[in-house]
Structure formats: C-alpha cells, structure tokens
Amino acid sequence: MAPGKRGGIRGKRSNHHVERNYAERLKDLSVHSSEESGLESTNDTDSSNNSDSEEGIQANFCISMWDLNHCDPKKCSGRKLLRHNLIKNLKLGQRFPGLVLSPVGSQCVSPNDKDIIEKYGLAVIDCSWAKIDETPFGRMKSPHPRLLPFLVAANPINYGKPYQLSCVEALAAAMFITGHKQEAKFYLSKFSWGHSFLELNSDVLNLYSACTDSKSVLEAQNEFLESAGKENDDSKPMWPPSDSSSDSESEHDEDDICKNNKVEKV
C-alpha cells in the first residue's frame, strides 16, 4: 500500500452504524493508530528495499584488477571503480587467490564458482588488444582463471558488439552468473549506461546463472546462439580490439576493454 493511502484500514470497521460508548471508541482509535504506524513502518522498509534492489549492494568479497596502463585513464571503467574505492589494484607478479577473468582460462565462469569468489575474491585483467603480445599473462597468476561465455557489450564505444566488454561489465557478468546479482547491479550503477548491460543480456545471463558447472554454461551458450541464429565466427579475434583504436572514441569519457577469451562452440 502506498504511503498515505489508508482507506483500507478504515474500511476494516464493521457494524459502524451501531452506537458505541467512549471507551470503545478510544480503544478503536488506539488500535487504528497502531495499525497505521505499523503500515508506515512497513512502507518505509519496502521503500528502502526497493531502493536497494534498484541500486544493488556492495560486494563483501575482494574485487581486484591488474591494470596494464594500456587504456586512456579518462575512459577506463576499472580506473573509475578505483576512484570509488570499489576495486584494488594488483601489481605484476602478485598472485591472486580468487577467480580471475583471463584469456588463459580453460573453462568458463559458472555458478559452481560462487564459493571461490566469496572466499577468495574476483579479479580482472585490464589490457589492450593492440598490445596483447606485450601482455605478461604469466605474471598475473591465479589458481582459478576463467573465461566468460557469449555476452554483448553495452559500453558506449562497443555497444551491441559480442565479447567486447569493459572491465566493469566483465566483473558484473561474473557476479551475476555466480549468484551475486545485487552486487552486479551495484557496480554497474556507477555508470550511466550500466543498467543497459543487464537489460541487453538478461535472457542469456539468466540462462547461465541457472546452470551448474562450466560444461552446462557452455551448452547453454551454444543453445542460445543457435536459437538466436548466431554462429561463432572463427575469423573474429579471440579478444576485442583496443578501446583506443579509433579517434572517434575520444568523445566518450569512460571505457576500457577487458580481455576475456570467448568460449568456443564444441
């Protein structure tokens, strides 16, 4: 019930045509007031819950990244998260114990990874396709490297393009797939376009999050691509192009490309 609409409470009275004495009316007033107060408290709680649902909640597990300084700091979503103290910067050679979104992974993120993320955290590698040969993946180690399945970017530079996700999109995707949907919303809420990522990928993200392991996520991806009439093209690059490859991109104030090998159909 919306705040201020309490007509239903008054309507709960029965036999209102029967005359009552002062004590009865006083008792009714007390009960009525108590019910109104309870409703107001419930409405306040509901409003708060709705706000949390829209904006999400901050992750209580570690979020980190290796920043190779390949991207324009003004367009880098990872740098923006760093300015908001929502991500930690890792040094080359520093080992990360949690799940890392990396092209050297041998399996894709799945709901099975939920405990790993909650216990040890989630990290991403921020680097450029143009400098992929210079990227020292061997110095960014984790016992749990993972790939991301098929997803479409919603960031301003690569909107609608498969696999070409920014760091925050990659992190949010991993969170969503592993059951941390409110955390995904929270991180995306820091970007004006962030909500579009979940909207654009709602169907496939729900499919992935309903799976169990990497194999079932891969099967869900393949079924989705087939049903959508899309086929993986082996001629496409294994990683997305650099976010600085076009002069026209300078008009955007935030973007970077997270390197995540796409999972091939089998």
From TrEMBL:
<dbReference type="Pfam" id="PF04068">
    <property type="entry name" value="Fer4_RLI"/>
</dbReference>
<feature type="compositionally biased region" description="Basic and acidic residues">
    <location>
        <begin position="16"/>
        <end position="35"/>
    </location>
</feature>
<dbReference type="GO" id="GO:1904047">
    <property type="term" value="F:S-adenosyl-L-methionine binding"/>
</dbReference>
<dbReference type="InterPro" id="IPR007177">
    <property type="entry name" value="Tsr3_C"/>
</dbReference>
<keyword id="KW-0690">Ribosome biogenesis</keyword>
<feature type="compositionally biased region" description="Basic and acidic residues">
    <location>
        <begin position="257"/>
        <end position="266"/>
    </location>
</feature>
<comment type="function">
    <text>Aminocarboxypropyltransferase that catalyzes the aminocarboxypropyl transfer on pseudouridine in 18S rRNA. It constitutes the last step in biosynthesis of the hypermodified N1-methyl-N3-(3-amino-3-carboxypropyl) pseudouridine (m1acp3-Psi).</text>
</comment>
<keyword id="KW-0949">S-adenosyl-L-methionine</keyword>
<feature type="compositionally biased region" description="Acidic residues">
    <location>
        <begin position="246"/>
        <end position="256"/>
    </location>
</feature>
<protein>
    <recommendedName>
        <fullName>18S rRNA aminocarboxypropyltransferase</fullName>
        <ecNumber>2.5.1.157</ecNumber>
    </recommendedName>
</protein>
<keyword id="KW-0698">rRNA processing</keyword>
<feature type="compositionally biased region" description="Low complexity">
    <location>
        <begin position="40"/>
        <end position="51"/>
    </location>
</feature>
<feature type="binding site">
    <location>
        <position position="148"/>
    </location>
    <ligand>
        <name>S-adenosyl-L-methionine</name>
    </ligand>
</feature>
<feature type="domain" description="RNase L inhibitor RLI-like possible metal-binding">
    <location>
        <begin position="63"/>
        <end position="95"/>
    </location>
</feature>
<feature type="domain" description="16S/18S rRNA aminocarboxypropyltransferase Tsr3 C-terminal">
    <location>
        <begin position="99"/>
        <end position="225"/>
    </location>
</feature>
<keyword id="KW-0963">Cytoplasm</keyword>
<feature type="binding site">
    <location>
        <position position="125"/>
    </location>
    <ligand>
        <name>S-adenosyl-L-methionine</name>
    </ligand>
</feature>
<dbReference type="GO" id="GO:0000455">
    <property type="term" value="P:enzyme-directed rRNA pseudouridine synthesis"/>
</dbReference>
<dbReference type="InterPro" id="IPR022968">
    <property type="entry name" value="Tsr3-like"/>
</dbReference>
<dbReference type="GO" id="GO:0030490">
    <property type="term" value="P:maturation of SSU-rRNA"/>
</dbReference>
<dbReference type="GO" id="GO:0106388">
    <property type="term" value="F:rRNA small subunit aminocarboxypropyltransferase activity"/>
</dbReference>
<feature type="region of interest" description="Disordered">
    <location>
        <begin position="1"/>
        <end position="53"/>
    </location>
</feature>
<feature type="binding site">
    <location>
        <position position="163"/>
    </location>
    <ligand>
        <name>S-adenosyl-L-methionine</name>
    </ligand>
</feature>
<comment type="similarity">
    <text>Belongs to the TDD superfamily. TSR3 family.</text>
</comment>
<keyword id="KW-0808">Transferase</keyword>
<feature type="region of interest" description="Disordered">
    <location>
        <begin position="222"/>
        <end position="266"/>
    </location>
</feature>
<dbReference type="InterPro" id="IPR007209">
    <property type="entry name" value="RNaseL-inhib-like_metal-bd_dom"/>
</dbReference>
<feature type="binding site">
    <location>
        <position position="77"/>
    </location>
    <ligand>
        <name>S-adenosyl-L-methionine</name>
    </ligand>
</feature>
<dbReference type="Pfam" id="PF04034">
    <property type="entry name" value="Ribo_biogen_C"/>
</dbReference>
